[in-house]
Amino acid sequence: MLLGLAAAFAVLIAVRGYARTRVVAVDAATEWVDHTHRVLEAVGAADTRFADAQLGHRGYLLRGDSASVALYRASAAGVDSALAQLRTLTRDNRAQQRRIDSLATFAHGMLATMRTEIALRDARGAEAARGALIRGKPNDRAEPYRALSARIAADEQALLAARAARRTHDRDDRDLAMRWGAFVVLVLCVAAAGRVRSALIVRAGAERERDEHAQALVRQSAELEEQNRELTAQGEALRQAMDQAEGANHAKSMFLAQMSHELRTPLNSVIGFANIVRRNPHGTLSARELTYLERIGENGRQLLRTINSILDLSKIEAEQESVELEMVSLDVLVREVLAQLEPQATAGRVELVAELPAPVASVVSDTEKLRRVLINLVANAVKFTRAGGRVLVRVETAPRARTTPVAIEVRDTGIGIPPDRLASIFEAFEQGDVGVAREYGGTGLGLSISRALCRLLHCDLTVSSVPGEGSVFRIALPLDGALASLPPASDMARLRAVGRLQGF
């Protein structure tokens, strides 16, 4: 019984909440209906003012009385006021705004013509003004204005009908919800009474119920076993599907990796021929044509960089990237990277700073792959740091061995990355924000390639960021910077040499 009352109370609360939302919806629909009425009133006011301006203009040309010219001037000012009110009321409707702008253009043009004809009458007399009035055909001139005003009013009438229908629909929903709520409460009360009666019957047949319950448990156990077998079969099917998906992804990566020559060769030809034609040896190309050729070359180079990034990522995924281990001097590598990116930083008025311990031990890694990672990180930091900002590249050493490098950090004072985007920032074609690609450009592959290269080198690339303050990308070197990647099993001599170099 108590459960039934609680359920009835819960339903009442739910019905009240839903009815309240419907009331709010009705109020909002009423407000929009009133808003549409105000727009129609403003359209009518603009039409009335414009007609009064025409009346005053015609009366002054025919009679020359001051009352007519005063009516024209007051009505012309009223047209501007009414059009301004229309713009304010329809600021949420771009189509109407465009029509109102066209209406204002027609109105201002005709008002200017009226002013000219009034000035003509003042300067040359009534006969000249009447002749201009007859030749000007004011009714024909006003036809575009009237047609556009009628279009605006018709659209608002259609909006009014739709919004009124919406308000009626919301009212019907509110009334229906309240009626259904009352019905449900009645049903629940009847069900609660039936529940009391059922409880008495259950108490009388407790032993029979226990036997039935035991049998139900046996059946449920059998059903659970069947479900477990089905889940096992589904898991196996899912594993096979995942294997197939991974195989398809691997095949895709292999295909793209093999297509590097077929994609790059024709694009390099396009860029090369564009550069040859840009030389303009015969002087037959105009400045505009040379500009077009420069754009072709730049867009081609941008496309080539994008293709190279996609192919690099595909080669890594297809496991076609090999690691060439050698001794790497981090201080020299960092300085070379900063020198390479100095023009980009200078153009953006961003300060590049290196913080390097002296001395710092060399590490065993792949120089070119580590260089690509640093170039990606530093170039990104420069790109997303505004003028006057700072990018710091720092080599971190072990606390007890000050010359042993353990990590490389790239810090910037840029725009930062929102916390909800940090988890996906290393995914392919992802950037820190949906608006970043539009403002700063880029394909979103640099960080994905950097993380893939770091994993290939047995490094760990992580990021921390505060929006508006900057970001920190950290490359944790393996084994305290000692060993970047294991050589093939057949190259045991080189493995032993590396071990002796690092003191293993």
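(ticket continues) Second input and output from the same batch:
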Amino acid sequence: MDLAENALDFHDRNCVGCSERQPVRLPNLTELVRQRDDEAAQNESARRVHEAAERAAIERRTATRAALHQGAAHHVGGVLDLLDALDRTQSEDAGRALAESVRAVPDAFGANVRQQIIAVADAGGEVRTNAALSALEAAGGDAQMLAEVALRALARGDAIERAGRVVAGNIAGAFTAGLDVATLLAGAAAQNLVWLARPVSERFYREGRQSEPAGLITSRQVAADVIDVAIRTALRHREKEQRRAGAYAVRALIHAGDRGAGLRFVNDLIAAFSLPDDGYEDGEASLTVARVLAESLTGQLEEIDRVLVATAEHGGADERRGVLRSYVAVFDERDEANRRAAHKPRDAATEVERVAFARILGVVSRLPTDNELLREACDFFRDTSPVPWDVMCGAAPALLGTVALAADELTGQGRKSRLEHPQPEALQELEIASRHTLLNNAINFAMNSVMRVAATHPDTLVRDETIAAVLETLEALPDRAEVLRARIISRLGALGARPVAVALVLPWVYRSLTDPSQQIRAAGATSYGRLVAEAGPDSLPSLVHETFLVLITDPFVVVHRAALRVLKEGYLPEAFLDDARARVMHVIVAHADGEHSEVLALALGVWLDLLRATNRNTPAKQTAVVKLLRKLNPSDAVEFIRRGRGGIREATGYGECVIDLLEHPETYNASYGELIEELGVLPNVEVARLAGRIVEAGMTISSVEPWRSGQCLQVLIDAQAWEAATELANRRAEACGTTRDLYPRRLQAQLDAAMIETESAAAKGLVDQVVAHAQRARELLRQIARDAEENRDIRGIFPPVRRSPAGD
């Protein structure tokens, strides 16, 4: 924000007429005010000169029209009157009336009347120019005259949409008739035609429109050099929407059959990548430029690809990212509204798709040090459904190699010397953490792409070949590649949808369950769960299930946590449930101290599920779970209650546990609502027993989120705990104090108390008290209405701004 502007605003609000001001140094307020006032005076003078010239011009045109009006036919005189009204008022109604009158008798006007319409069009202004052009078209003006007037309007920037359509229909004829269209187009006129090629998205503050490139396309047929210069100017403009318009202009030429447009502007399109950009409004302009380059590849693949490759090798970071986006955009099909089209996997790729995919794969397989470039390359592999099957099949070896390289870099990350990294240590750690995230994404997305081929390719032979390639990679990994081996193994189970695939991956899954490495055993547990989900529990030998059960009591947390997660999904055959339940109990005992809170919460949830599955769930066991809940971190305990809602409500002490969590200082505010809802479903007798604690809990959390005490109040009202509800309502009113800003809240709290006391008295049959409390409630309602009316202005969403008299 401009500091000078703020200082002047302060001056206007507070300093006008003040006799105490003393200049301190330059620049000071006096100097700023003088400069501002001088500029305002100059602008005012210029405005007056312009208005005087405008009035004089209107009077001259009016005099000419008055001369023509004498002796003119009735309908001609009417048109002149309408033209006069349009000229003076610039009213849209007058413009529509003029166009309709001319359209009714288009052949009845001579050259003099047409000249007057042209004069009004040339006078400028959006409404005048638009209406005059419409009238000239309706009057049947010749192509040269229409094109000339429209080009002048484009040069001024008036009614450019109408002018663009007029140019589209008449510029060819005007050129044939001898009009110097190149001179008229040069500069602003051609640039506005480029601007019209850009579609405008509808927003709540503006209307949208489709791309209107017809004027641009026809103009290039008669003035190619001028239009090309305008497009290049737009593509190299620092304003991103101008570059977007330039890109759409190139796209319009390509769609109009100009196959050489992409190559002709390729350097200008690439130059747009390095100019200032942002993601606001309609997004980055570089994305539009990239999509246009992607379309250009279809027409001249070899030539444009050569330029893009050279740019990727020798260009800057922004240009390299732009080149990558261009290849990615080949697979990003969009409709006219710029929405992504639905993708149905195809078997065979086009040559453009083959080249583009190879370039993208080349980027990600090199794991470039440019993290932004790597991030966008990885994002492409997040969803490879638009990529045809044949190129995906051929990419499996390269993707597996990328996985190996990324895993190797992960194990060696952070070992470089301080001389190689002169930044502060904290910054180094942030950069290393960011790089780790990218490398992990590269591994995950590359593996997902390979697994997609192995699991869903329409040809089962290709699936089996891909699975074999994955297993060969596993076999070839050195012992030190433990992390990578674990990642691959964890995904093998997802391939078990067919008996042949199960036979291929099962030996590796079984072997991993007994591997010496804890990471491999954890990955094996995950893969086992996926394999059971895909193939079904009965398709695996009992020995595999029994081996998995051993992992539940594995001494390493990472292993038995993975096994518990598998059990949570319910993948174990029924015959092994009792054994699993006993083993999970051992895990609960081992973690009963709560040191690994998330593991204890997971084990408790699995144990309850197994108890229900084997019909062994009892209130006593639920009570034991509630006691252990108190060992958990508040966030884990709240999550346990949320996920297992209703599963332990019969347990002794459950209500107290929920209230303790509600009052715990480490409980997240966002969890209050769910905990209060849980209190609300308890039996009324239980709520009544805990009513005093609910009152205290409501007041405790009201210091953080005041409305939560109202939710606690509703729980007490629903359970008809009238005395506690009355106490809470009164305490809410007292907590508001006597400050003016909280007065409405205090009145509402007092009204709640009066209403509750009315209900309580009615339940007890105390008629006199019902009448007294009801009268009190009515009086409070009147006070609330009176207060709202008296303070309506100052309590509005946007209170009026009070400025000093000097600033008005």
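Agent notes: The two ends are 22 Å apart (CA to CA). Residues 414-419, 798-808 have pLDDT under 50 and may be disordered. Closing as not reproducible unless the customer responds.
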